[in-house]
Write a structure and sequence with these properties.
Elements: H1 6-12, E1 14-17, E2 21-24, H2 34-41, E3 45-50, H3 52-65, E4 79-83, E5 88-94, H4 100-110, E6 119-123, H5 126-131, H6 136-157, E7 161-165, H7 184-202, E8 210-212, H8 214-222, H9 234-253, H10 269-298, E9 302-303, E10 310-311, H11 322-344, E11 350-353, H12 358-374, E12 376-378, H13 387-407, H14 413-441, H15 446-466, H16 476-492, H17 499-504, H18 507-527, H19 530-537, H20 542-546, H21 553-561, H22 565-581, H23 596-618, H24 623-646, H25 649-652, E13 654-656, H26 657-664, H27 666-676, E14 678-679, E15 684-687, H28 693-722, H29 727-755
Helix pairs in contact: 2-9, 3-9, 4-6, 6-7, 8-9, 10-11, 11-28, 12-13, 13-14, 13-26, 13-27, 14-16, 14-22, 14-24, 15-16, 15-28, 23-24, 27-28
């Protein structure tokens, strides 16, 4: 930990990921769009002073505001630019040498009530080398001139952002005869003089001229692609302009994926209350543990003085009380949440941008598949989609999704479309699993509902408080929660149709099908009526849960993307359980699901369907068009996989314990990755060990998986305490939970008011 000033890193160090993607040391750089650049620079005046290299930077900078700008105008003269819609002025002033003229211009901004530019970018040296043929006298004069300009720049730096751009290296072999005297040795001498004078002057001054030295590093990698050996290729100067934009705008716009130059956000009122609560829980647990340990020692073994034998105490082990278990859970959770906060809210650990390559995605996929096959065991039961198999399914899907996120593979459309199917498969399992439970058990009690809702939402609610994020930010949990409530409402509403009732009269099956048709109709209507959907979820208190950035559009988009797959899961469960009841399928160990002929035909159709979908997804050219088709066709590959996995008896009889282990904590893995594996709310990668990417991934992954596993256990323990089976006790707990959320809403309103 070298301090929290990531601006220093952004301006001075970094490396290339691939050919064109620049990665600053320790922080993430946001790619500004034209609209964002305008919003940041509204009513601002920016000035670039220098030679032709600074002119290049000037053009790249104004193209971030208006991409239509062409590089026209006087080469050796001033060039103005103005965007009247945002009242932005950007000027290039031609001063190719650091001399009296440049000093006079800079001095004019320090005198009287003259309007000062908000951003000043200065740099020059190559003309001095060229005109004076690289003489030592010219270097001495350069030092004198910078020494006279430095105090003026520092005076401007009190109210403006001032950047001194160091000279980029040249590609000497490509320089024309008139520029042969411009050598990298001379450039280094001029840069060294500028840095020494500016730094020594800044020690005694509060205002600091920022040295823009990162362009030197960028040029070292790209100058050989220069057209003349002196001027940078377009991609490199565009990178420099984007760095400038990040340095100035990140603290104003606060982009999630732009951690460079962003100050640590202040603690909110709710975060302070949470910190106090966890601190008290840790103190309380330590006190109770010490008391119990002391009592246990007193009651341990004591020596019988007469016989000299050891007698066992009447109490061998202290019983863990509910209070102690509660405090123990909150103690562990408090320590874990501290780690979450340090990783993704404090400027303690480094963060880096993602960079996709095919190898970074496919090699880890092959690796985990080999591991998964290696840990193969026999299943306890051989039913279709048995518990071990569904855990395995969740596990390998979650691992693939994690690799997809850390590798940044969303930029590669075929991978994106296949990952969309995996997310849909999770929701398919939601429909299948909850329908099967309600249909077979007929248990529509409050206890079951509260248990499911608690297990799904506990971690997300805690993260909303600790990480200061809205509920909808963790979009998958709201999605699964709402679909669970829809499944519950569909089956619980009168008439309640369950398997036991339907076995007595086949007409009840048609009644259930009518319910499912009504559900499908509602889904279809809401998917094509954005207005109606938004009205439903814009009512308080639903709006507090489902709004993101002031509207529910993101929630509508997420819901619409997989709108039919839960219904498909429910329908599949209904058909499967009906066939099972009538003994039309064989689920014995090693037996195919159907007769050999039917099994072979279905298996062939499933393989063809699976491959056909993959070919279609791989040929996708437009994400929007493919997303439109996805809700209707994703079920093809899901059903194909289910049949391929279950029709052959020998395949159905085994499972991967490796994948199943991850499947049991898949929800925690999905949520925890936001902050302690990835960074900047999934936009970047957490760096615990800089300079060693593979070792960093191993260490951060180990911690991440351990934390997810621990949170899963904490959630299970708390679920037993917070959601008891006794109805009267459960009612009291629900009133306490309602009070908790009321208090949370009250403090949230206070927080919003103080922000505004």
């Amino acid at each position: 930990f070298k301090g929290g000033d990531t601006c220093e890193y952004l301006l001075s160090s970094g490396r290339f990921l691939g050919e064109k993607v620049w990665q600053p040391h320790s922080c993430m750089m946001h790619k500004y769009k034209n609209s964002e650049a305008k919003n940041c620079l509204i009513d601002k005046h920016v000035v670039f002073i220098g030679d032709s290299r600074i002119r290049q930077l000037f053009y790249s900078f104004i193209k971030l505001i208006n991409p239509q700008v062409k590089e026209e105008g006087i080469k050796h003269g001033n060039i103005p630019f103005e965007d009247k819609s945002a009242s932005i002025k950007v000027d290039f002033l031609w001063y190719p040498e650091v001399n009296g003229s440049m000093r006079q211009r800079i001095k004019s901004w320090t005198e009287g009530s003259v309007a000062k530019p908000h951003i000043i970018v200065v740099g020059a040296a190559t003309w001095s080398i060229k005109i004076h043929n690289g003489s030592s006298e010219a270097l001495a004069q350069y030092k004198i001139n910078i020494t006279s300009i430095a105090p003026l720049l520092e005076k401007l730096a009190i109210s403006s952002d001032v950047y001194w751009v160091l000279q980029d290296p040249v590609y000497e072999d490509m320089l024309s005869e008139s520029r042969k005297m411009i050598t990298n040795e001379k450039i280094d001498a001029y840069n060294e003089a500028a840095v020494r004078i500016l730094n020594s002057s800044s020690r005694n001054s509060k205002a600091k001229v920022k040295v823009f030295s990162v362009s030197k590093l960028i040029a070292q990698e790209t100058i050989m692609k220069s057209a003349d050996g002196l001027h940078l290729p377009e991609s490199s100067r565009d990178t420099n302009a984007m760095i400038l934009m990040n340095v100035y705008c990140n603290k104003i716009m606060k982009p999630i994926d732009g951690s460079c130059c962003q100050p640590q956000p202040p603690l909110t009122l709710i975060q302070k209350i949470a910190f106090c609560f966890f601190t008290l829980s840790i103190i309380g647990y330590l006190i109770i543990s010490l008391i119990h340990r002391n009592n246990y020692r007193k009651n341990k073994s004591c020596t019988d003085l007469e016989s000299g034998e050891e007698k066992k105490p009447s109490i061998s082990t202290p019983n863990v009380s509910t209070l102690e278990m509660l405090l123990q859970c909150f103690c562990k959770l408090g320590l874990i949440m501290t780690y979450f906060y340090l990783c993704d809210r404090a400027n303690l650990f480094m963060k880096e941008n993602k960079f996709y390559t095919h190898s970074s995605f496919f090699i880890p996929i092959v690796y985990i598949l080999v591991l998964g096959v290696f840990y193969t065991e026999n299943t306890k039961e051989t039913k279709l989609l048995n518990r071990e198999q569904t855990d395995e399914w969740k596990g390998w899907m979650q691992l693939v999704i994690l690799i997809y996120h850390i590798s940044g593979a969303s930029t590669f459309l075929p991978v994106y479309m296949h990952i969309r199917v995996l997310v849909a498969a999770y929701l398919f399992q939601t429909g299948y699993g909850h329908f099967s439970y309600f249909w077979i058990k007929g248990d529509f009690g409050v206890y079951r509902v509260c248990q499911v809702l608690f297990r799904l939402n506990f971690l997300v609610v805690v993260l909303c408080i600790v990480m200061d994020r809205p509920y909808q930010f963790y979009y998958f949990v709201p999605l699964v929660t709402v679909w669970f409530m829809i499944i519950y409402a569909t089956l619980a509403v009168w008439p309640q149709i369950v398997q036991k009732k339907a076995n007595g009269n086949c007409l009840w099956h048609f009644g259930l099908l009518l319910k499912l048709i009504c559900l499908l109709t509602c889904i279809y209507f809401l998917s094509y009526s954005q207005g109606a959907f938004e009205k439903i979820f814009s009512f308080w208190p639903l709006s507090k849960c489902f709004e993101l950035n002031g509207n529910v559009y993101e929630w509508w988009f997420r819901w619409k993307l997989d709108r039919y797959v839960v219904f498909h899961g429910m329908l599949f469960a209904f058909i499967y359980l009906a066939l099972q009841k009538r003994q039309m399928i064989s689920e014995g160990k090693g037996d195919p699901l159907f007769s050999n002929r039917v099994s072979n035909v279905l298996l062939f159709i499933s393989i063809v369907s699976f491959l056909t979908y993959s070919i279609w997804a791989s040929s996708c050219k437009n994400k929007t068009e493919c997303n439109e088709l996805h809700p209707s066709v994703s079920v093809v590959q899901i059903l194909a996989f289910v049949l391929i996995r279950n029709i052959p008896g020998y395949v159905r009889s085994v499972y991967s314990s490796f994948f199943a282990w991850f499947g049991k904590i898949s929800l925690e893995l999905f949520i925890c990755q936001y902050h302690i594996w990835l960074a900047a709310d999934t936009k970047g990668i957490l760096v615990l060990i800089p300079g060693y990417p593979m070792f960093n991934v191993l260490v951060s992954t180990f911690i991440f998986v351990c934390v997810a596993h621990e949170i899963s256990q904490i959630t299970n323990d708390l679920a037993q305490i917070v959601v008891p089976k006794d109805n009267s006790t459960l009612l009291k707990r629900l009133l306490c939970i309602a009070g908790f959320f009321s208090g949370l809403h009250f403090f949230s309103a206070m927080q919003d008011q103080s922000r505004h």
